[in-house]
TrEMBL record, chain A:
SUPFAM superfamilies registered for this protein in UniProt: P-loop containing nucleoside triphosphate hydrolases (SSF52540)
Protein name: ATP-binding cassette domain-containing protein
Gene3D superfamilies in alphabetical order: P-loop containing nucleotide triphosphate hydrolases
GO annotation (BP), single: response to antibiotic
Primary residence: membrane
Topological category with respect to the lipid bilayer: Peripheral membrane protein
Highest taxon, organism lineage: Bacteria
From TrEMBL, chain B:
Keywords: Membrane, Transmembrane, Transmembrane helix
GO molecular function: ABC-type transporter activity
Keyword Membrane: yes
InterPro entries: ABC-2_transporter, ABC2_TM
Designated name of the protein: ABC-2 type transporter transmembrane domain-containing protein
Cell compartment(s), UniProt: Membrane
GO CC annotation: membrane
């Protein structure tokens, strides 16, 4: 069952085309990562999906509804953690959540939302006294209050410390496990790789790579890196490499086989491949390759 | 505002009303500017005139001062509150809830109008006790026109936010409205105006309320306020901004 359908989405701001015919789908209960550099069009896409902006072209459906035309009905079923949105600075964390509970049908209990977001110990703290990461967690608590079917998370862990980030990952995974569809943007590619099962990379308003996370990464070249032995020229090696400083980098579909070939070659010559590192493609490799 | 403006959410309306009221009474700067100052003027001027002149002049000045209360406590207050909430992206956050756009604005407008009515009632009682200004002959008519005037001025203040580029300019941008409202209703003293201008100023919502309180004729004021209501709703529909300008 598809929860989010985007087909040929176009959106311009004052003559600048921020999103140029983007298409993707997110299944129910999936975690989908929408990635790209700053200005790639991710936030504009989320704002259209959340009904803040009307699409200029293409079709967008969230839970079968048009997010702009049906935004009131849809917002009762979605949670949104905006990249930027204010709080009432003089209210405490508890007062903020209570205020929001009054605006939402059948909200979670306040303490449950604060526990989920890891803010239970900050109930009595004024919002103006929270750190940037704590404000993101409060943002998350508010987004989760309505037990949404679809959750939009725009850079959810920015400013969080590593512990809070990992706790947030746990919350996101649990929600997806309970059937919540999650669309997230992030600049932390490790976060996207760990959380998302599907992804799209945007660049200059277009999707430049998309698909199942594991399959897409498996199709990418892996990497074997080692410090180049003294007096050896790259052309002497059995496989093509590029030099990054003093490090030789060999890209190969099967990095294990490439490493074996290189080690055999080195052993025959009594050489040592110091600092040898073998790994399959990461999302960062794919991102840097795609979003040039 | 969309057609589902009041769709099934009296609780949400109460929540937005309570939110607006809570924020209003927590902000000391707002309280000083939109409660202490106008109530001080509306009570202080009649009090002074009662001492140096007469109760009838004090009554006339108090009636004129209603225009200041409407301009400051309703119009300026809602403009300042909504532009601040817009620029701090609080309106955007409110839109992530299940509230309709209409409910968000309506809750704020009703909240502001309620503060205004409360200030006018307080001032009316204060000038009765302190300055000998008689209570209105027709309390129900007085209440009706004051409530209607407060709601219309809060509505117009919400619409006016579209003209205010940034929250810090909101007070400065509403100052001309305050001055025109005060001059047109005679709250700034006898200022000579061209003959052609007076009938035009009589069409202002603040002047309409003051004239209705003076004469007891509610019909003309009701028509004028209805016209401004339509203008305010159309302006909100066309130009209201929920977020600050991107550049």
């Amino acid at each position: 069952m598809t929860a989010i359908e985007v087909n040929g989405l176009r959106k311009s701001h004052r003559g600048f085309e921020a999103v140029k015919g983007v298409s993707f789908e997110v299944g129910e209960g999936q975690i989908f990562a929408l990635l790209g550099r700053n200005g790639a069009g991710k936030t504009t896409t989320i704002e259209v999906l959340a009904g803040f902006q009307r699409a200029d072209g293409g079709t967008v459906r969230v839970l079968g509804l048009d997010p702009y035309a049906d935004r009131t009905a849809l917002r009762r079923r979605t949670g949104i953690m905006l990249q930027e949105a204010g709080f009432f600075p003089d209210l405490t964390v508890a007062q903020t959540v209570d205020t929001w509970r009054g605006l939402i049908a059948a909200p979670r209990p306040r303490d449950e939302a604060l526990e989920l977001a890891g803010l239970a110990g900050k109930r009595g703290t004024k919002v103006r006294q929270l750190s940037g990461g704590e404000k993101r967690r409060l943002d998350l608590a508010l987004a989760l209050l309505g037990r949404p079917d679809v959750l939009f998370l725009d850079e959810p862990t920015t400013g969080m410390d590593p512990e809070a980030r990992r706790a947030t990952w746990g919350v996101v995974r649990d929600l997806a496990g309970q059937g919540t569809t999650i669309l997230l943007t992030t600049h932390y590619l490790e976060e996207a790789q760990r959380l998302a099962s599907t992804m799209a990379i945007m660049d200059a308003g277009e999707v430049v790579a998309a698909g199942d996370m594991a399959e897409t990464l498996a199709a990418q070249a892996g990497r074997v890196a080692f410090r180049m032995p003294a007096h050896v020229h790259p052309a002497d090696l059995p496989l093509p490499v590029t030099l990054e400083g003093g490090t030789a980098v060999c890209r190969a579909e099967d990095p294990d086989l490439a490493a074996q070939t290189l080690l055999t070659w080195a052993a025959e010559r009594g050489l040592r491949l110091a600092g040898l590192e073998v790994r399959t493609a990461t999302l960062e490799d794919l991102f840097l390759e795609s979003a040039r | 505002m969309n057609p589902t403006f009041l769709e099934g959410a009296p609780m949400s309306l109460i929540a937005t009303f309570r939110l607006g009221t809570r924020l209003f009474w927590r902000d000391k700067a707002v309280l000083l500017g939109t409660v202490v100052t106008p109530v001080g003027l509306a009570v202080g001027m009649p009090l002074l005139l009662n001492v140096v002149e007469s109760a009838s002049l004090a009554t006339s000045v108090f009636q004129s001062a209603l225009s200041l209360l409407l301009a400051i406590t309703a119009f300026m207050s809602v403009t300042v509150a909504l532009t601040a909430q817009r620029d701090q992206l609080l309106l955007k956050r409110l839109r992530t809830t299940g509230l309709t756009d209409g409910q968000i604005l309506f809750g704020q407008i009703v909240s502001t109008a309620t503060q205004t009515v409360a200030m006018i009632v307080l001032s009316t009682v204060a000038v009765r006790v302190l300055a000998g200004v008689p209570l209105p002959d027709d309390p129900l008519g007085f209440a009706a026109i004051v409530i209607a005037g407060s709601v219309v001025m809060a509505l117009l203040g919400a619409a006016y936010t579209a003209a205010v580029p940034r929250a810090e300019l909101a007070s400065a941008y509403t100052m001309p409205v305050f001055l025109v409202a005060g001059v047109s209703a005679g709250a700034m003293g006898p200022i000579p105006l061209p003959d052609w201008l007076e009938p035009v100023l009589d069409l202002l919502p603040t002047t309409a309320v003051v004239n209705a309180v003076r004469t007891g004729d509610l019909a003309v004021a009701a028509l004028i306020l209805a016209g401004w209501t339509v203008a305010g709703l159309v302006a909100i529909r066309l130009w209201f901004r929920w977020e600050p300008r991107r550049s």
